[in-house]
Design brief:
It is an enzyme of class 5 (isomerase). About 45% of the residues lie in helices and about 15% in strands. It is of the alpha/beta class. It has five domains: about 180 residues, Rossmann fold (3-Layer(aba) Sandwich); about 70 residues, Arc Repressor Mutant, subunit A (Orthogonal Bundle); about 200 residues, P-loop containing nucleotide triphosphate hydrolases (Rossmann fold), CATH 3.40.50; about 170 residues, Orthogonal Bundle (PCRA, domain 4); about 60 residues, SH3 type barrels, CATH 2.30.30. Helix 10 links the parallel strand 6 and strand 7. The radius of gyration is 29 Å and the shape is globular. Bound molecules: adenosine-5'-triphosphate (ATP) and magnesium ion (MG). The site of adenosine-5'-triphosphate (ATP) has 18 residues, from helix 2. The site of adenosine-5'-triphosphate has 18 residues, from helix 2.
């Protein structure tokens, strides 16, 4: 085939071309980020089709996400200059395995119309089995069992093939429970996610005829992101490739970031042994990033031991150095990035204008997104969250907000429906129906309906008890919210009349709405529900709940907060609008953006505390690979930032710059933080100093921004109140006092806070929990930072 008839080959360098043209036999493309692995893989598909080596449905192409599959199909079409019809076997491992399993379900004792269980169903099933086996489910929670079983499935171990070394798990109960679980799934004609691969591998292992049929059918196999395959996926591929041996895998050992989910980077290193005579192509030219970005990424990853080591170079000389900036706290970080995004859009930084859709913010943990979302919503900057719902749309946030809504209004039936059995209270569909009927018959809210039902003893047993507790709780919380409507006199400190109003628990002392929120989450059992949850997602959900409580701090009361959220949730921008992308580092694998922001580079956040606590380097090295993935997403501008303080539950915690920052090669980094009083290490050089004036200036920008005005107008049109700005005050700079602006102080009733204004002997203080108050200076003592 001549290059003339295959013009897409001209877009490749010689090494890529070799990988594309070596159509027959095993090929391994092992190369660093941005070297055109995915491009070569895609071109290979085009070439297979164009040269007539295979029909679309004879190609098996595995991608990491459905989105990547869709993009690959589009790119092939572009290369060929015509739409590609019928590539049924281009997709993720799971999507492809569902199709295979439907065809051969009977071979593993299922029917072809099997259902795929979600996590909830799976847990309910495991719980039944644990109880039936007479095991204490408190000590051996279903969640823990489910993650053991998932792990085994990732390693392709069935109950029959489970190695002896594994049998100790779950106090030796797990193997029998695993067998019982698989048996039960069969009876239900159901599978869980892990089964999709496991069953297909089992079928291939036990039924040569079926395996051979597919070995013949799939003439060419292509796999992207090979470094992140787990054992089951690896076996599956090796079995299928056993016939023609036309398998092409591409990957980068430095980007292996799914070890925690059972991925084995060893798979890529073993390729040449598994497929003797494989063509191994190394790509060294990076086409994505400028030289500084590439050098910074390489500098970081070099600290890992036991890597293959690769040469990477780029022809894109010059460009900007990686930018490093330290901030006072997380809010300031979000504010700065918001401003920066606007500046970049206008090209005011002296570069070409970079639009919002060319920018991405990549976070280590999804709870980091909240600060950005709030900021962007406030200034009306369009954004989208990829790979997960936006913060206020997350399940745990909606659950928690439903509790808050009920506390504010006990008539909120939708909120009641949402949480009546969350966490589980033994109030199933039947009980809920009864409540609905009682409410309708009496023309009252569900809460009232439930009360009537209880009084009439129409609900009994455990359900009745837990319902009574829930109703009591709702009443208590509601009374507490109402307490907020009555001003409480506070003779020793409060100057502004009626300023100090706080919720109070029945008969108790006044509490802040933040404390109330914490109490609600605790008393309802909702926090405990996630604390007892042993799935990998649970810690993230707890973090999100903490973030939610933190978000309350900028509001005067629960109601104002709920209105704010209702308002911003409605602030959807239209699809055609350019938006900045917010996503996790994990989700960003394989993607690229002209400008990338990497916030939150602090020890304990990135690298994560868990990785730091681990003995050995495994966890830490995986975090470092994640850092490498992050930096190498950037084409032109890469900005790393960290905050010196993060607020957790209203408490300031100071954070150290990430150890990865010290690993950045200085020659390729620009420290943007004004050089402060600090000596010492590289990270320390970027330590921020707080600038109140700067902050105020940028707040003024907010109020002048079109987004803010738009929102305000909409809010006013609906009679809604606006979120309160905690630090928006006029400062008389000539005031004399022993206290200075920004000083951290303590008040015996309101706790810790910072001085925001001084008027003679009166101070205005933004308390961390109690909000802004004016107090007489003599009641204030200085506090350590
Ligand atoms: P990652 O490891 O991050 O997945 P990758 O190796 O898959 O990266 P690609 O995404 O395929 O890299 O390519 C990176 C960028 O370089 C893309 O924008 C791609 O279009 C471009 N590119 C790849 N090869 C060439 C080439 N030979 N000439 C010009 N541009 C190229
Ligand atoms: Mg790629």
């Amino acid at each position: 085939m001549s290059a003339r008839s295959a013009p897409y080959l001209d877009e490749l360098n010689p090494a890529q071309r070799e990988a594309v043209e070596a159509l027959d036999g095993p090929v391994l493309m092992l190369a660093g980020a941005g070297t055109g692995k995915t491009k070569a893989l895609t071109t290979r598909i085009a070439h297979l089709l164009h040269s007539g080596k295979a029909r679309p449905n004879e190609i098996l192409a595995v991608t990491f996400t459905n989105k990547a599959a869709k993009e690959m199909k589009e790119r092939v079409a572009r290369l060929l200059g015509q739409p590609v019809e019928g590539m049924p076997w281009l997709g993720t491992f799971h999507a492809i395995c569902v199709k295979l399993l439907r065809r051969h379900a009977e071979l593993v004792g299922l029917k072809s119309n099997f259902t795929i269980l979600d996590t909830d169903d799976q847990l309910r099933l495991l719980k039944q089995l644990i109880v039936a086996a007479g095991i204490d489910e408190k000590r051996w929670p279903p969640r823990a069992l489910s993650s053991i079983i998932d792990n085994w499935k990732n390693r392709a171990w069935t109950p029959e093939t489970l190695p002896a070394a594994e049998t100790g798990a779950f106090d030796h109960h797990a193997p029998a429970l695993y067998a019982a679980y698989q048996q039960r799934l069969r009876t239900l004609n159901a599978v869980d996610f892990g089964d999709l691969l496991l069953h297909v591998v089992t079928i291939f292992q036990k039924h040569d005829d079926v395996l051979e049929q597919y070995q013949r059918w799939f003439r060419y196999i292509l796999v992207d992101e090979y470094q992140d395959t787990n054992v089951a996926q690896y076996l599956w591929l090796r079995l299928l490739a056993g016939g023609h041996k036309n398998i092409c895998c591409v990957g980068d050992d430095d980007q292996s970031i799914y070890g925690w989910r059972g991925a084995e980077v060893g798979n890529i290193l073993r390729f040449e042994k598994d497929f003797p005579g494989a063509t191994v192509v190394r790509l060294e030219q990076n086409y994505r990033s400028t030289a500084h970005i590439l050098a910074a990424a390489s500098g970081v990853i070099e600290a890992n031991q036991g890597r293959l080591g690769k040469t990477l170079w780029t022809a894109a000389d010059g460009g900007e150095k990686v930018r490093l900036i330290g901030h006072w706290d997380g809010e300031e970080e979000a504010r700065w990035i918001g401003d920066e995004l606007e500046a970049m859009g206008q090209g005011t930084r002296g570069q070409r204008p970079i639009g919002l859709d060319e920018c991405a913010i990549l976070v280590r943990a999804s709870h980091q997104m909240r600060a950005f979302e709030d900021r962007f919503l406030t200034i009306g900057l369009p954004y989208k969250v990829i790979g997960g719902p936006r913060f206020y749309e997350r399940m745990e946030i909606r659950d928690a907000m439903a509790y808050f809504r009920l506390a504010v209004s006990t008539d909120d039936d939708l909120a009641f429906e949402r949480i009546v059995n969350t966490p589980k209270r033994g109030l199933g569909d039947k009980a809920q129906q009864k409540i609905q009927v009682a409410a309708r018959a009496n023309g009252v809210s569900l809460v009232e309906g439930a009360r009537i039902l209880l009084a009439a003893k129409e609900i009994s047993g455990k359900g009745a008890k837990s319902l009574a507790e829930l109703l009591d709780g709702i009443e208590r919380w509601h009374t507490a919210v109402l307490g907020a409507a009555q001003p409480v006199t506070d003779d020793d400190a409060v100057i502004e009349e009626g300023l100090f109003i706080a919720p109070r628990m029945p008969g108790g002392k006044p509490i802040s709405h933040i404390e109330l929120a914490e109490i609600i989450l605790e008393e309802s059992g909702y926090t405990a529900h996630w604390q007892n949850d042993k799935t990998p997602e649970a810690p993230g959900r707890l973090e999100n709940l903490k973030e939610l409580v933190k978000a309350l701090e900028s509001f005067e009361n629960l109601q104002g907060f709920l209105e704010h959220v209702a308002l911003i949730m409605d602030n959807e921008s239209d699809d055609a609008e350019a938006r900045v992308t917010l996503m996790t580092l994990h989700a960003a694998k394989g993607l690229e953006f002209p400008a990338v922001f990497l916030p939150g580079w602090e020890d304990g956040l990135f690298p994560s505390q868990r990785a730091m606590d681990e003995s050995g380097l495994k966890g830490l090295e995986e975090e470092r690979r994640l850092a490498y993935v992050g930096i190498t997403r950037a084409e032109e501008v890469c900005t790393i930032s960290f905050a010196a303080n993060r607020r957790i539950y209203g408490q300031w915690q100071s954070a150290l710059p990430s150890r990865f920052i010290d690993e950045l090669p200085e020659a390729h980094v620009d420290v943007l933080t004004p050089p402060g009083l600090y000596g010492g290490g590289f990270g320390a050089a970027a330590q921020p100093v707080r600038s109140d004036l700067q902050e105020k200036a940028s707040r003024a920008d907010v109020y002048n921004s079109p987004g803010w005005k738009r929102m305000q107008a909409r809010g006013q049109a609906r009679g809604m109140s606006q979120p309160r700005e905690t630090r928006n005050v006029v400062i008389d700079l000539d005031a004399v006092s022993s206290f200075g602006l920004g000083d951290r102080v303590f008040h015996k009733k309101f706790g810790y806070g910072a001085v925001t204004a001084i008027e003679g002997d009166k101070l205005e203080i933004a308390f961390e929990r109690a909000g802004v108050k004016k107090v007489v200076a003599k009641f204030i003592v200085p506090a350590a930072n």
